[in-house]
Design a protein that fits this description.
The complex is a heterodimer of chains A (108) and B (119). With 108 residues, chain A is mainly beta. Chain A has no helices and eleven strands. In chain A, the strands form two sheets. In chain A, strands 2, 4, 5, 6, 9, 10 and 11 form a seven-stranded mixed β-sheet that branches. Chain A has a four-stranded antiparallel β-sheet with strand order 1-3-8-7, with no helix packed on it. Classes of the chains: A mainly beta (108), B mainly beta (119).
């Protein structure tokens, strides 16, 4: 089973700043089958990134994903007010599918 | 555009079976996709429960496999989840979701339904 560890747990930033979120896997994620989701309070998760670096349909280009193997990063280049939320990584390379514990991006 | 909507009892007694249904609209459940369930205890992270293909093939999370049953009703364009012998730890928001066949993440989600476990 692949365990995903996200860091930091909370990121306190101001609008316009750059956010860098980390997701580390306990073993290599084959073919970089790694996704990122955004979740706002009371809402379902929303797919942002798949295949470690491909943006999902309709996702603004300020969101970017990178990494391979066991280390992955989600970068938000300039935070907009609507970007303050919780972000989860997920591996879909094998069963059981697994999610990281989440990173909360909050307004400083 | 596919839309998913969960329904079912919001309150389940301990040791009973939790039963939820996800209605799919704007899209055929018999397409080349898998239909899944993910849950989220209040204030906590996401946990994959399993998914099902329209043919009835299933994959379940090993941690829940002994208690989970999923089914699909193509005539009603919906799929269902049953989780037996529930306890307080099964209290969560339950989401249904869709993923394409093959190695793909969930790209469409229902709004979620809160299930409380209490006598």
């Amino acid at each position: 089973e692949i365990v995903l560890t996200q860091s930091p747990g909370t990121l306190s930033l101001s609008p316009g700043e750059r956010a860098t979120l980390s997701c580390r896997a306990s073993q290599s994620v084959s073919s970089n089958y790694l996704a990122w989701y955004q979740q706002k309070p009371g809402q379902a998760p929303r797919l942002l990134i798949y295949g470690a670096s491909s943006r999902a349909s309709g996702i603004p280009d300020r969101f970017s994903g990178s990494g391979s193997g066991t280390d992955f990063t989600l970068t938000i280049s300039r935070l907009e007010p609507e970007d303050f939320a919780v972000y989860y990584c997920q591996q879909y390379a094998g069963s059981p599918l697994g999610f990281g514990g989440g990173t909360k991006v909050e307004i400083k | 555009q596919v839309q998913l909507q969960e329904s079912g009892p919001g309150l389940v007694k301990p040791s009973d079976t939790l039963s939820l249904t996800c209605a799919v609209s704007g899209y055929s459940i018999s397409s080349n996709d898998w239909w899944g369930w993910v849950r989220q205890p209040p204030g906590k992270g996401l946990e994959w429960i399993g998914y099902i293909y329209y043919s009835g093939s299933t994959y379940y999370n090993p941690s829940l496999q002994s208690r989970v049953t999923m089914s699909v009703d193509t005539s009603k364009n919906q799929f269902s989840l049953k989780l037996s012998s529930v306890t307080a730890v099964d209290a969560a928001v339950y989401y249904c979701a869709r993923k394409s066949d093959g190695y793909h993440p969930f790209d469409s989600w229902g709004q979620g339904t809160l299930v409380t476990v209490s006598s």
